[in-house]
Amino acid sequence: MDWSTKxxxxxxxxxxxILNLSFIKELTSGTLExxxxxxxxxxxxxxxxxxxxxxxxxxxxxxxxxHRKIFLSFALDTVAVEQALHQFxxxxxxxxVEASPSCLLYTCYIHKQLATTSIEExxxxxxxxxxxxxxxxxxILENQIPGxxxxxxxxxxxxxxxxxxxxxxxxxxxxELAKGTTICNQNKMIDAFVMASKLEWMFWKxxxxxxxxPVKSNIIYV
Length: 222
Ligand SMILES: Cc1ncc(C[n+]2csc(CCO)c2C)c(N)n1
Fold this sequence. Notes:
It contains 9 helices and no strands. By secondary structure, it is an all-alpha fold. The structure holds ligand VIB. Belongs to the TenA family. Its EC number is 3.5.99.2.
């Protein structure tokens, strides 16, 4: 069994719980409140900016030029997706938004992986972002209520064939890196994959709840 098969089997339960989230159910039916979706997009904008930096950082550490090329193209795609979705849904709103606790946790986790773990573990930590979104995008496409869905543009970004190639490349690179490393490190890669999958679940849950910080501040800038 290759590394990615074991990795996906390790998160089957988390994936099922993602599909059962109200955010995903209502995104599928198109009934998700716009306020919740906008909250998600604003948080996602923070996430994508950090994710793009991590992808570029991973590229710097990869030995094979082919892998570097792919990760740099992922980093560019991330900026493009961020701009396109946000232009479409938020019309370039320039509100200053603070990262929610879950968003901060996720972005700090991937930065921590890049800064302090093996390159294999860092790559494994970014795979759920690709793979889970592909699966969720396809699931929504298949289970959509036919007709108008105000979130069609978002759904089409991740569901369908266009995004498949990137996901397959990311999975293949993980399998190749896993093959070239120790069993111990392969298991650490699984841990990273599972942790990032939990953080994907938390990200959607926190968007639906429009998660706030449990303590407030009254910042006065100079
Ligand atoms: C929390 C969160 N997780 C995953 C994605 C999906 N995603 C973000 S960047 C990227 C790679 C290339 O665009 C993919 C698949 C998201 N938007 N937000």
